[in-house]
Amino acid sequence: MITIEIKNADEVVKAKKGWFVAGLADLLLDLDAEVEKVVAQKVREALAENGVVAVVERTPYR
Fold first, then answer.
1. What is the pTM of this model?
2. Phi/psi-derived region of residue 58, left when phi > 0, alpha when psi is between -120 and 50, beta in every other case
3. Would residue 53 be called left, alpha or beta, if left means φ above 0 and alpha means ψ between -120 and 50 degrees?
């Protein structure tokens, strides 16, 4: 099992989309969850490109 914890979701959104979008998104969305979804999708794609069959899913914090 591999666990990845994203520690700087707000900084990632700010760097990719700008401070204004990051500020609005933070008010309207769960930024951590949204960034985790994107990261999980990118991991799935990278594994599939290399022929690796894996289940990559986001699990809520406990």
1. 0.74
2. beta
3. beta
